[in-house]
Please model this.
Amino acid sequence: MARIEELAFTPTPMGELTLRRRFDPVVDADVFEVKLGDEFLMSSLFTAAEEELSRLGLAALEGERPLTVVVGGLGLAYTAVTALDDSRVASLTVIDALPAVIDWHERRLLPTSGRLLDDGRTALVEADFFAVMRTEPGTHPALAEPVDAILLDVDHTPQHTLHPSHADLYTVEGFGRLARYLRAGGVFALWSDEPPHPDTMTALAEVFARVDGHVVEFPNPLTGETSTNGVYVARVSASVPSP
Model:
């Protein structure tokens, strides 16, 4: 039996997008991987930081009120399904620019797909998250009004984006536009393949009332060592009225 199975393949403006499943003898389990061209984007072997993106981001929200949450980037959906574990989450909108990725889950090709689709709080929306953030709140159908939390997991890091058009978000001006989509006391959390970068921390601090950078450590079964990712958590002042 083949150790690698291609589950889906789609040309995109950013390159050839591939979803594949392979058996990994090191962990004695199937591993799901996403490639864009020759570049590995994500693997089900390494989901700790994606899950912590949700946990850390939502933990920064005070109170027990029902929460509206947006996830930018669907991928393997570990960020999204972890958000659903928080009982305060009343609605979860996942925005992804690639219809192929949404199709993977609608076809239930991934271990997370059933949990995602069978939860009535979830909506999958095809849209360019970065383009949405450039619009005025209330004008884009993908995000009609400000929300309590935005969790973003698309680019490798703010300094290493998948597409040049994403770079303008990771600036003082870009973070300012994003903050308009958050309610008073709302949270923006961002995953990074690397520990928090000083330049990004500084830019976030220009916009948000509080900014924390977290280093997430997790075991790497391929190297036998510990690997690290980063999670930024930025909070809007609770005294600022919603846009």
